[in-house]
Design a protein that fits this description.
By secondary structure, the protein is mostly helical. It has 9 helices and no strands. The protein has one domain: Vanadium-containing Chloroperoxidase, domain 1. Helix 2 packs antiparallel against helix 6. It is elongated. The relative contact order is 0.18.
């Protein structure tokens, strides 16, 4: 697949913008990976807070890392099938902020974006306020991949679509995940998924 035919012009525009903003290089070089770390912290906080909340909330929190890992695996399968070369290899005369990756490290889709968006949408399903913050973090990760010269815009877009699709599968799996949490709260997994709430006292029926 020749990604330059799809949106090579947009890629060159963003890389040109990157060359004109050297004061942003350090930030995006660090943030492109650190952004994933921040999302991981938000996912960990969602899990920790979910231990004291209803099983449905904990189920949604557990799906955040599970969905991200599933999306990452699917993304790598797509990379192997499509085998799109990195844009920095197609435009070697255009300097990029980040060093060009190996030829066998394919471009489509962006793994960074798949992970970031799947985690952000998953967090949105847990708590919308946290999810909105996560979406902003994911958007910055997505932009950084083109800014650094690692991906075409369509690699980022495809990664976002895949991330959203996998994260939304959590809605279909909510019931079995909730059942799993309820089962875990009754046994040794209570340390991980929280404990069941106090049993409700049954009121005697009037005769």
């Amino acid at each position: 697949m020749d990604g330059g035919v799809v949106d090579g012009g947009w890629y060159l525009d963003v890389v040109g913008f990157a060359r004109s903003t050297p004061w942003l290089h350090g930030f995006f070089q660090i943030y492109t990976d650190a952004g994933l770390g921040l999302l991981a912290v938000l996912a960990a906080v969602a899990w920790w807070r979910g231990r004291g909340k209803p099983a449905e909330v904990m189920a949604a929190a557990l799906w955040v890392p599970l969905g991200a890992l599933l999306a990452y695996g699917l993304s790598n399968l797509v990379k192997i099938v499509v085998q799109e070369p990195r844009p920095c290899l197609r435009y070697p005369a255009m300097p990029t902020v980040a060093p060009c990756d190996f030829a066998t490290d394919y471009s489509f889709p962006s793994n960074h974006v798949v992970l970031a968006v799947s985690a952000a949408v998953g967090l949105l399903l847990v708590a919308w306020r946290v999810g909105l913050v996560a979406l902003v973090l994911a958007a910055l990760v997505a932009f950084s991949r083109v800014y650094l010269g690692a991906h075409y815009p369509h690699d980022v877009f495809a990664g976002a679509v895949l991330g959203v699709a996998v994260a939304c599968c959590g809605l279909l799996l909510r019931r079995p995940l909730t059942a799993l949490v309820l089962w875990g709260r009754e046994g040794r997994l209570s340390v991980l998924v929280g404990t069941a709430g106090p049993a409700r006292r049954s009121t005697p029926q009037r005769r």
